Amino acid sequence: MDYQFLMEKAKEASKNSYSPYSHFPVGACVLGKSGNYYYGCNFENSSFGLTICAERNAIGNAIANGEKEIKALAVYSPNMDDCLPCGACRQVISEFSSDNGIDIITEIDNCLKIRNFNELLPGRFKL
Ligand code: THU
Asked: Does the beta carbon of 3 lie inside 6 Å of ligand 1?
């Protein structure tokens, strides 16, 4: 699995971030079960609570393109090493992740860090 490629796509997506309030750009790239890639960036709103995170944007893109299951997700911010999904995004990732979890990829000192999603949301709620 070429997670370096996934991370490069997350980096590209972060360049499209609309983050005039936080000045914290984030990009994400999802690898779907089909093998296709889907990108997302955060986009903020003057009514702050309506902000959409990069991960949820990428997942929405995957779902809109017919994916039902996610295999891996890379997250990147130029402002922070090891930029991990927020709590709300973790719950959304959970919806499309297998019970065995998926690989979550971040970057620390230019090296990839790979974690299993179940580490990030143990005891998750799922119907
Ligand atoms: N953000 C993401 O896009 N993903 C996360 O998991 C954490 C936070 C965005 C939301 C907001 O636009 C900015 O980063 C600062 O919180």
From this structure: no
> Which amino acid is residue 47, in one-letter code?
S
Domain 3-120 matching CATH 3.40.50.720: the answer reads: no
| Spatial contact of 70 and 42, defined as CB atoms under 8 Å apart | no
Tell me the domain boundaries of the chain.
3-120
Neighbours of 89 (CB within 10 A): 24
The rounded Å distance from CA 125 to ligand 1 centre is 22
Say if ligand 1 is within 6 A of residue 51 CB: yes
Q: What is the reported pTM?
A: 0.97
Q: Where are the alpha helices (DSSP H) in 1-127?
A: 3-14, 54-64, 87-95, 117-120
Q: By the 8 A CB rule, do 53 and 26 touch?
A: yes
Q: What is the pLDDT along the chain (127 residues), one digit of tens a residue?
A: 689 999 999 999 999 999 999 999 999 999 999 999 999 999 999 999 999 999 999 999 999 999 999 999 999 999 999 999 999 999 999 999 999 999 999 999 999 999 999 999 999 998 8
